[in-house]
């Protein structure tokens, strides 16, 4: 069996490749990745010829046609993934997340190849703070940001290709991932690497926003579960009951790194900042028998802090560029 992993050099895609090589030696892996700013060439370097690597754009119809024609399964991670960037310039988000997914869908349709489409809980918009409400597969789409609206658009394209053309596809919407190889622009790696650089963590607004954290290996294990046992055409929500507010995440990182828990700055809030995400993953657990392995967020976070401490050579070359971009829009407010 050959699997084509789009965006396989990015955070979740690269962890998916690692998990697949570790646990499924019978699967041959092709990675296609445009190597945008979000892809670090060092991430998969150690695997050499054990992976077929193609540098290319998912919006390139000839390339997608060729790659899809010689694969058995496509797992589609490639995307522009960062909300803050989408608020500065949405164009790449429309191009990759919508046009790119459309291009891939047409190749999948032509060649009758199985697709698993990776998406996000952000397509549902946000939930009020301090309630028990959670997203389910039946929650209506109501995205807030350019990023989440292009992901919602890509999901709807996949659903339409299932219904109108009968392609064999499954979809998943997952909550916030953490773990190794995540770009330093994202919340958790940004704050860990700030502290490791002697810089105070930066919390948007009041820091009361809640995210539902899941370890990246649990996300990818759920993806394989859906590929193995999911029903064609169906959507599954992936989450590990990891709700935590942003202030608590920053304070835990500070504590794990031996710093006072008030040693952070509050900065300008993100425009349109979603308040809270929370996933009800009952369907995945009951119908497909999936369970997360990383149920203690604090110990998963501690292992992630250790990973960044031990892999400075991997993240350091990206740190200054990310912080200068943030410095253009961020003001310390407290
Ligand atoms: P990432 O930004 O770390 O990686 C994205 C990868 O896609 C990069 O390697 C990039 O080079 C590649 N890419 C971008 N445009 C491309 C193009 N046009 N053609 C080919 N490759 C291209 O993102 P991530 O956090 O690993 O997210 C992966 C997927 O998972 C995305 O679809 C995202 O929406 C989804 N997701 C992410 C999270 C999260 O918490 N990070 C949660 C749920 C879902
Ligand atoms: O929910 C899934 C989504 O999670 C994915 O679809 C996205 O690809 C992924 O980037 C993530 O989106 P968020 O916007 O939730 O993640 P981010 O890491 O950017 O921010 C997490 C929270 O932390 C959010 O409430 C904003 C806040 N934040 C972020 C940064 C970068 C800060 O307070 N300070 C920061 O410096």
**How much of the polypeptide forms β-strand, as a percent range?**
15-25%
User: Which residue ranges are poorly predicted, with pLDDT under 50 across at least 5 consecutive positions?
Assistant: none
Could you tell me the CATH topology label of the domain at 2-178 and 214-238: Rossmann fold
Radius of gyration: 19 Å
Distance N to C terminus: 54 Å
The helix content, as a percent range, equals 40-55%
Q: How are the strands of the biggest sheet laid out side by side?
A: 3-2-1-4-5-6-11
Instruction: Find the count of extended strands (DSSP E, 2+ residues).
Output: 13
- Form type: globular
Instruction: Count helical runs.
Output: 11
The hetero compounds bound to this protein are: nicotinamide-adenine-dinucleotide, 2'deoxy-thymidine-5'-diphospho-alpha-D-glucose
For the largest beta-sheet, the strand count, sense and barrel status come to:
7 strands, parallel
CATH architecture of the domain at 2-178 and 214-238: 3-Layer(aba) Sandwich
Structural class: alpha/beta
């Amino acid at each position: 069996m050959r699997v084509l992993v789009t965006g396989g050099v990015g955070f979740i895609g690269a962890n998916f490749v690692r998990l697949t090589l570790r646990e499924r030696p019978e699967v041959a892996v092709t990675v296609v990745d445009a190597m945008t700013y979000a892809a670090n060439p060092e991430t998969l370097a150690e695997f050499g010829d054990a992976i077929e690597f193609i540098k290319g754009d998912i919006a390139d119809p000839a390339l997608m046609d060729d790659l899809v024609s010689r694969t058995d399964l496509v797992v589609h991670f490639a995307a522009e993934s960062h909300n803050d960037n989408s608020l500065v310039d949405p164009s790449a988000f429309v191009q990759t997340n919508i046009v790119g997914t459309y291009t891939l869908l047409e190749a999948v349709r032509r060649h009758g190849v199985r697709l698993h489409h990776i998406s996000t809980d952000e397509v549902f918009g946000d939930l009020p703070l301090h309630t028990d409400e959670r997203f389910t597969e039946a929650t209506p789409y109501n995205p807030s940001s350019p990023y989440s609206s292009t992901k919602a658009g890509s999901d709807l394209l996949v659903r339409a290709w299932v219904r109108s053309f009968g392609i064999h596809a499954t979809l998943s919407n997952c909550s916030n991932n953490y773990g190794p190889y995540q770009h330093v622009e994202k919340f958790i790696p940004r704050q860990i690497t700030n502290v490791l650089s002697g810089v105070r963590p930066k919390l948007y607004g009041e820091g009361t926003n809640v995210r539902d954290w899941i370890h990246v290996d649990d996300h990818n294990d759920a993806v394989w579960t859906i590929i193995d046992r999911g029903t064609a055409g169906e959507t599954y929500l992936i989450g590990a009951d990891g709700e935590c507010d942003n202030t608590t995440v920053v304070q835990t990182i500070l504590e794990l790194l031996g710093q006072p828990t008030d040693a952070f700055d509050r900065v300008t809030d993100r425009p349109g900042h979603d308040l809270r995400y929370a996933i009800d993953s009952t369907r995945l657990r009951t119908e497909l028998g999936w369970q997360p392995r990383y149920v203690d967020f604090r110990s998963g976070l501690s292992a992630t802090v250790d990973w960044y401490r031990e892999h400075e050579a991997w993240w350091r070359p990206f740190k200054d560029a990310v912080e200068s971009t943030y410095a253009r829009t961020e003001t310390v407010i407290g």
